[in-house]
């Protein structure tokens, strides 16, 4: 089987609830965007061209790996990463089916909805002089920081924001921010070269960055404990999802991780600490037919207790984000209603009782507490402030790129946003190419 690459990379596809813009390797769903790595991009194209049909491992090796010898583990990892990418945007739908001893099948219909004009590709000179060309990769995420402060009005305090400044400039993608109660440390998730995610710690006093987990395991959705002495995270393998606890020290000791809870394999738990550091809150679902709901996990014993209502009494399509207040006993939840509406719930973190609920005319995907009366939410490129006492939503800041996570340290808001980064490559007369310069910013000059 061969893949028609002349036009395959320029089409826009409708796949279930997801739109895939192949020209930019961008998945879109309900106002959210996600960019695929080149390997997952090629893999998805093969499945799209064979939607509802079985694609064997041999066919994948021939098209995605260009006939090179690869292990079953490499294919499994590639499929797993693509499956997780699709599930992160549309967790209610199963897109890729594994058929033992046969291969894989895309379970949703795939339709070409537009055709983007094809851009010219760099050609290799037949002379011996190498050529340099600029290749854009839409996979970088930068951590930015901006100052926020109160403007006192007669009605009640409001927030204002100055311009954002980049906080990191690493290769690849950083996301999933969290911080400690002393406001001097940032925890974040960073993608390694092999596609797995690692957890990193940034101490703001000296601006040092420390890698806390290696790239052997896909580590995600970490949250820093209030005292910054430990962090909880989700460890994924092909067949497991585990919530782990790991102490923080200058050197990571073997066996220092402790398993707190084993979650269903297709879950994206999303974690938040209680202010005393003794309890974790997480979202979990039994399977893809059920919505995400809120649970309480006692760190010392591993005891799990459901806080939100059973599915029979549940409104909405699932809890999409959560944040526990560091000073009060309240929990803020975002619940998906539609592509244009989100429900904000304030619940008692001890028993899950809903105190207030408010429908918001935005597709909010992340939130954090600024103080007891103000929440900060992100929807697309915009950060909003929500005043609890008057149930008012006010735009605070417009970023240049979509925001995927945010946290507050003192009077500074840190957020991660997906943006373009560009690489400079060298091509010789034989057609071999090599990377010369990698940047997490868009370089307009070679």
From TrEMBL:
One Pfam family in the UniProt entry: Trans_reg_C
Transmembrane domains' residue ranges: 132-152
InterPro entries: OmpR/PhoB-type_DNA-bd (IPR001867), Sig_transdc_resp-reg_C-effctor (IPR016032), WH-like_DNA-bd_sf (IPR036388)
Keyword Transmembrane helix: yes
Organism: Rheinheimera baltica
Matches recorded under CDD domains: trans_reg_C
DNA-binding region: 10-108
SMART domains for this protein: Trans_reg_C
Name the UniProt record assigns to this protein: Winged helix-turn-helix domain-containing protein
Keyword terms, alphabetized: DNA-binding, Membrane, Transmembrane, Transmembrane helix
Residues annotated as domain OmpR/PhoB-type: 10-108
């Amino acid at each position: 089987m061969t893949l028609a690459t002349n036009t395959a990379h320029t089409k826009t596809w409708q796949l279930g609830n997801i739109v895939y813009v192949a020209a930019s390797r961008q998945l879109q769903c309900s106002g959210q965007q996600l960019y695929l790595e080149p390997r997952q991009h090629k893999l998805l194209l093969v499945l799209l061209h064979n939607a509802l049909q079985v694609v064997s491992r041999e066919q994948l090796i021939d098209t995605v790996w260009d006939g090179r010898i690869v292990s079953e583990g490499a294919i499994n990892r590639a499929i797993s990463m693509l499956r997780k990418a699709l599930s992160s945007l549309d967790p209610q739908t199963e897109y890729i089916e594994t058929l033992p001893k046969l291969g894989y099948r895309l379970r949703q219909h795939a339709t070409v909805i537009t055709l983007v004009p094809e851009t010219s590709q760099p050609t290799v000179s037949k002379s011996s002089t190498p050529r340099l060309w600029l290749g854009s990769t839409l996979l970088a995420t930068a951590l930015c920081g901006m100052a926020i402060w109160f403007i006192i009005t007669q009605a009640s305090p409001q927030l204002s924001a100055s311009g954002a400044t980049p906080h990191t400039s690493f290769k690849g993608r950083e996301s999933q921010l969290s911080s400690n109660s002393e406001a001097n440390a940032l925890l974040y998730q960073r993608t390694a070269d092999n596609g797995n995610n690692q957890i990193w710690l940034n101490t703001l006093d000296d601006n040092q960055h420390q890698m806390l987990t290696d790239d052997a395991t896909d580590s995600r959705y970490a949250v820093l404990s209030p005292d910054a002495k430990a962090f909880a995270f989700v460890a994924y393998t092909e067949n497991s999802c585990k919530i782990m606890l790991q102490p923080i020290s200058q050197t990571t000791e073997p066996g220092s991780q402790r398993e707190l809870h084993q979650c269903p394999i297709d879950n994206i738990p999303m974690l938040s600490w209680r202010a005393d550091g003794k309890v974790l809150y997480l979202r979990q679902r039994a399977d893809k037919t059920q919505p995400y709901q809120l649970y309480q996990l006692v760190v010392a014993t591993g005891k799990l207790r459901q806080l939100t209502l059973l599915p029979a009494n549940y409104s909405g399509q699932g809890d999409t984000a959560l944040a526990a207040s560091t000073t009060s006993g309240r929990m803020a939840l975002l619940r998906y209603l539609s592509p244009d509406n989100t429900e904000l719930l304030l619940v008692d973190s001890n028993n899950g009782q809903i105190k207030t609920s408010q429908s918001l005319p935005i597709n909010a995907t992340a939130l954090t507490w600024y103080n007891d009366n103000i929440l900060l939410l992100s929807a697309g490129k915009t950060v909003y402030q929500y005043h609890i006492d008057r149930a008012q939503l006010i735009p605070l800041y417009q970023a240049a790129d979509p925001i995927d996570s945010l946290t507050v340290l003192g009077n500074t808001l840190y957020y991660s946003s997906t943006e373009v980064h560009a690489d400079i490559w060298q091509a010789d007369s034989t057609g071999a190419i090599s990377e010369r310069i990698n940047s997490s910013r868009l370089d307009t000059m070679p």
